[in-house]
Specification:
With 379 residues, this protein is mainly alpha-helical. Helices cover 75% and strands 0% of the residues.
C-alpha cells in the first residue's frame, strides 16, 4: 500500500514532464515548419528540446520506448523500398559498401590518433567516441572497457549525431550538393487518400512489425526496432502479392518528432570535466567527419552515377533512422541509403566492435605495464 501511494505521488510528475516535453517538441516542429527549414519535424523538436533542457532548464523527459516506435515507423517505410530489384542493386554494391566503410573507419581512426596527440585525452577513448557505429553500441563497448572515459565517449558520439542531423539537411539543400527537392507533404490535401489506402492491411502489418522488432531485440540485433520491421515488410513483399501501402506524411512527421525529441535530450555538457576542451574537440572532430563523408560521397556519386543527395546520405555517419528520414524527404534512393547505412552498422557491430575490444585491451594492458615499470624504484 505504501509503495502504491508513492507511485501515485510520482506519476503526475512524470505525466506532466512528458506532456511539457511533447508541447515543446510540437512547438519546435511548428516553428521550423513556419520558417521553412529542411526536415522541420526532426530538427524542430531536437533543437527545442535541447534548448529547453540546457538553456531554460525545463524538467523535460522523453521515454526511450517512444523513440523506439518512431524508429519502427521508419523501418516500415524502408522495408517498402526493399524490392527484389533494390536488393539485387544492393548486392551488386557490396564490395563498394565494404570499401567505403573501411575508408570511413580509417578516417575516424586517424582523426582520433591526431586528437590524442594534440589533446590530453587518451587514444582508446577518442577512438571509441569517433567510430560511427551507433550510440548504444559504442557506449556499451566503452562500459565494458573500464579504463575508457565513458562520459567523453558519450559526449563525442552524441555531439557528432546532433551535428550531422542538423548540418546534413542544410547541405542537402545547398547549391554545393545540388539543391535537393522536397517530396510533397501537404498535411491537408495530400494524405486523405493515403490514409484510406492503409486499411485493412495495416491491421496485419502493424502487429507483425512490432513482433519483428521485439524478436530482433531479443536476438540483440543493432537498431532492432528498425531492422525487425524492415525484414518483415521485405519478406511480405518478396513472398506475397499483398498490397503494401506507403504511410501518410503526417505519420512520418510524427516519427520524426518521436526521434528528434529523444536526440535533443541526449546532450549533457554538465557531466564533462574539461568542458571547453571537450566541446571544442567534439565540434572539430564532427566537422572533419562530415567533410570526410562528403569526400567519400563524391567518390560514390561518380562511381555509380548516384544523385548527390543519395551519395551523401549513404556515407553520412549519422543514425540510420535519421538518414532514412532525410532520404525520404528529399526523394533520394532510400533503398541505397538504407543499404549503405545498414551494412556499416552490421559491419561495425559484428566485426569492428570485436576487433576494437581486442586491440584496446592490448593497448590498455601495455599502458598499465609501462606504468608499473615506471613506478618501480630504481636500484
Amino acid at each position: 500500500m505504501e509503495r502504491m501511494g508513492m507511485m501515485r505521488k510520482h506519476s503526475p510528475s512524470v505525466v506532466f514532464r512528458f506532456l511539457l516535453s511533447l508541447s515543446v517538441s510540437v512547438l519546435g516542429g511548428i516553428v521550423f515548419t513556419a520558417i521553412h527549414t529542411p526536415i522541420p519535424w526532426l530538427l524542430g523538436p531536437m533543437v527545442f528540446m535541447l534548448l529547453g533542457a540546457q538553456v531554460l532548464k525545463l524538467p523535460l523527459m522523453w521515454p526511450a520506448n517512444v523513440r523506439d516506435y518512431g524508429i519502427l515507423i521508419v523501418g516500415y517505410s524502408i522495408g517498402l523500398t526493399l524490392t527484389e530489384d533494390a536488393l539485387l542493386g544492393i548486392m551488386h554494391q557490396l564490395p563498394m559498401m565494404l570499401l567505403m566503410t573501411l575508408l570511413l573507419i580509417g578516417f575516424c581512426t586517424l582523426t582520433a590518433y591526431l586528437a590524442s596527440k594534440l589533446t590530453p585525452f587518451d587514444f582508446p577513448s577518442l577512438l571509441v567516441g569517433s567510430i560511427p557505429g551507433g550510440l548504444s553500441q559504442m557506449v556499451s563497448l566503452a562500459e565494458e572497457m573500464k579504463s575508457i572515459n565513458l562520459t567523453l565517449v558519450t559526449f563525442l558520439q552524441v555531439t557528432r549525431l546532433i551535428m550531422i542531423v542538423f548540418c546534413v539537411p542544410f547541405l542537402l539543400f545547398s547549391p554545393w550538393v545540388g539543391g535537393a527537392t522536397v517530396v510533397g507533404t501537404d498535411l491537408v490535401l495530400g494524405t486523405s487518400a493515403l490514409w484510406t489506402a492503409l486499411f485493412p492491411e495495416i491491421w496485419i502489418y502493424a502487429p507483425l512489425c512490432v513482433i519483428g522488432a521485439w524478436i530482433a531485440r531479443k536476438l540483440r540485433f543493432p537498431t532492432a526496432f528498425m531492422l525487425g520491421p524492415m525484414i518483415v515488410m521485405c519478406v511480405i513483399q518478396l513472398t506475397t502479392s499483398m498490397h503494401t501501402p506507403a504511410l501518410p506524411s503526417s505519420v512520418l512527421n510524427l516519427s520524426q518528432l518521436m526521434i528528434g525529441s529523444h536526440v535533443g535530450l541526449m546532450l549533457r555538457p554538465e557531466q564533462l570535466q574539461r568542458k571547453t576542451q571537450t566541446v571544442t574537440l567534439a565540434l572539430l572532430s564532427s566537422v572533419l567527419l562530415i567533410a570526410g563523408s562528403l569526400g567519400l560521397g563524391y567518390i560514390l556519386m561518380h562511381v555509380y552515377s548516384l544523385s548527390a543527395a543519395t551519395s551523401l546520405l549513404s556515407m553520412a555517419p549519422g543514425g540510420m533512422d535519421q538518414m532514412s528520414i532525410m532520404a525520404h524527404e528529399v526523394n533520394a534512393n532510400l533503398s541505397v541509403v538504407s543499404g549503405y547505412q545498414l551494412f556499416r552498422i552490421l559491419f561495425i557491430f559484428f566485426i569492428v566492435s570485436s576487433v576494437l575490444k581486442i586491440v584496446l585491451t592490448r593497448l590498455l594492458r601495455q599502458k598499465e605495464g609501462n606504468s608499473e615499470i615506471c613506478s618501480r624504484p630504481s636500484n
